[in-house]
Amino acid sequence: MPTPPRALTVAGSDSGGGAGIQADLKTMLALGTHGMSVLTAVTAQNSLGVQGAWELPAEAVRAQFRSVVDDIGVQAVKTGMLSSAALVETVAALLADLDVPVVIDPVGVSKHGDPLLAESALDAVRTKLLPTATVATPNLDEVAQLTGVHVREEADLRRAAAAVLDHGPRWALVKGGHLTADTAAGEAVDLLTDGREEHWLRAPRHDNRHTHGTGCTLASAIAAQLAKGDTVPQAAAAAKEYVTGAIAAGFRLGAGIGPVDHGWRLRG
Ligand SMILES: Nc1ncnc2c1ncn2[C@@H]1O[C@H](COP(=O)(O)OP(=O)(O)OP(=O)(O)O)[C@@H](O)[C@H]1O
Ligand SMILES: Cc1ncc(CO)c(N)n1
């Protein structure tokens, strides 16, 4: 039996299965890796929003991380919902000692605007977590929250990425998913840059409101591709293609915003 590429997600649980740990593990499977998880929080969540959230103790996060890293081994890590300053600091310290690519999705609020990170944790994200990142993948709200840069049109993405890079990640992937259709000309545009190279990731914008989990899916797809040995630009391009297909096939489930389809490729 060959040894499979292994990817780890450090994130919160989404009971609805579209975002969080569930999105990450499905994505890692769909992209041919063995996915593992360190749970940071449990949310009661569905297509209508987040009805409750409970954080795990730092000790439980550390123990899960050591269990998988020290025995099974990981070739790439992705982080998502980290909930509090204490957990951001705990995870940043664990990642600082790990020599594999790290994708940081600095999750701030859910698609419905429910908070998934305490305001008091923002400073630790800027000063402790982002410096550990091989790639940081903020959406436009997270860019504004972390850097103060407000993106209104595609041309602003360059300034936003530069402000993210100032906090120390090797690459910034700023997601333009939230740019409105009239400013983004029917495309979903993201910018990946390390300050020297620029890669514009463009895909058709799908008129599908069932986009729950897009950000988690993109970040964990990048981690899976990095675990398989891709460079960062290769991983980002493959992840963009995967998330675009998942959005196109998004499920109308629940009364609100349904989940993307992580299994779209498996269905042929
Ligand atoms: N309607 C759409 N059609 C095609 N691609 C989209 C659409 N909406 C978002 N995307 C793409 O999906 C990816 C995730 O971006 P988005 O800005 O939605 O992340 P996010 O806000 O972090 O997601 P989440 O709601 O999971 O937190 C990006 O590559 C973005 O360009
Ligand atoms: C647990 C969890 N992580 C991340 C997101 C991203 O929006 C979400 N909705 N829920």
From TrEMBL:
BP-aspect Gene Ontology terms: thiamine biosynthetic process; thiamine diphosphate biosynthetic process
Keyword Methyltransferase listed: no
Keyword Nucleus listed: no
GO MF term set: ATP binding; hydroxymethylpyrimidine kinase activity; phosphomethylpyrimidine kinase activity
Residue ranges annotated for the Pyridoxamine kinase/Phosphomethylpyrimidine kinase domain, each copy included: 14-261
GO CC annotations, alphabetized: cytosol
Protein keywords: ATP-binding, Kinase, Nucleotide-binding, Thiamine biosynthesis, Transferase
SUPFAM superfamilies, A to Z: Ribokinase-like (SSF53613)
Entry-linked Gene3D superfamilies: 3.40.1190.20
One Pfam family named in its UniProt record: Phos_pyr_kin
Reaction(s) catalysed (UniProt annotation): 4-amino-5-hydroxymethyl-2-methylpyrimidine + ATP = 4-amino-2-methyl-5-(phosphooxymethyl)pyrimidine + ADP + H(+); 4-amino-2-methyl-5-(phosphooxymethyl)pyrimidine + ATP = 4-amino-2-methyl-5-(diphosphooxymethyl)pyrimidine + ADP
Matching InterPro entries: HMP/HMP-P_kinase_dom, PM/HMP-P_kinase-1, Ribokinase-like
Pathway(s) the chain acts in: Cofactor biosynthesis; thiamine diphosphate biosynthesis; 4-amino-2-methyl-5-diphosphomethylpyrimidine from 5-amino-1-(5-phospho-D-ribosyl)imidazole: step 3/3
Role noted for this protein: Catalyzes the phosphorylation of hydroxymethylpyrimidine phosphate (HMP-P) to HMP-PP, and of HMP to HMP-P.
Protein name stated in the entry: Phosphomethylpyrimidine kinase
Native source species: Streptomyces natalensis ATCC 27448
